[in-house]
Each structure stands twice: as C-alpha cells, then as structure tokens.
Amino acid sequence: MSAIQKAILLEGNKKTEEVEAIFDSGATYSCIQPELAERLETVLKLPQPMEFGTAKNGERITASSRVNLNFYLEGLRFSDEFMVIPDLAQPVLIGAATLQKWRMKLDFEHDQVILDPRVTRLWLL
User: Fold this and answer.
1) Which residue range is the domain that position 82 belongs to?
2) In whole angstroms, what is the distance from residue 34 CA to residue 31 CA?
3) 27 φ, ψ to 5°?
C-alpha cells in the first residue's frame, strides 16, 4: 500500500477537528466518514451518485454526497472536496487528486508528506 498517516486539522463551517489522515496515492479522490463530515460541514448531495472500485477485486463503493473542507498540515492551509463514504476504515483519506492539486509529494522512505509552501499563497489575477 502506498500510504502515509499524518495528523491534520480539518475545518468546516460547523467545527474544526484534528484527525489522523491517510495520504494515499493509490486513491483517486479524497474521502471522509459520514459522521465526521456531518460534524464539520454542511453535507451536499451529489447530482448523481459516484461509484468507485476498491483494492478488493470486484468490490465497489458508492458516494452520494460530498463536503468541501479546509485542512491544515504543518501550519499550511489547503482545501478540497471530500467524497462521503459509508464504512470508510479511516476517518479521512487524502487522495491523488488533492495531492496533485496542491503539489504534495509522498516520501515513503522517510514516511513524510513533502509540501511546497508556494502553492498555498493566494494570488489575485
């Protein structure tokens, strides 16, 4: 498995909470457990459910809703959309789309998430 576990601070419009997140380059989307999503943010229904494959051959899971959250890692703020997944094994999973969006790199040898602080600057164009 290509994943690293790190503590992050999740921030929604209802609450802020620190959780252990899995940074997983093998997952396409970022995901969150329903109970945690509801505590943090207003959950939005997807226009159409999205179905995903899993590592287990032939197993599929469905997301019917999503949340938009900020998250903090090493004092830097990031934001993204998280698919709400029932029975998710971990509270939150940071997937490849988020990693690419924020140019995060996973260093498996040193169990680190490498951040580029330049990508968190806000630019008005």
Assistant:
1) 3-120
2) 9
3) -95, 135
Token readout for 113 is 């998430």
* Token pair recorded at residue 71: 């998250």
> What's 60's domain CATH number?
2.40.70.10
Q: 58 in a domain, yes or no? A: yes
- Strand, helix or coil at 2? coil
The band of 125, judged by pLDDT with boundaries at 50, 70 and 90, is low
- pLDDT tens column, 65-108: 999 999 999 989 999 999 999 989 999 999 999 999 999 999 99
Residue 125 domain flag: no
Who's near 115: CB < 8 A, 6+ residues apart?
73, 74, 76, 102, 104
* Number of domains making up the chain: 1
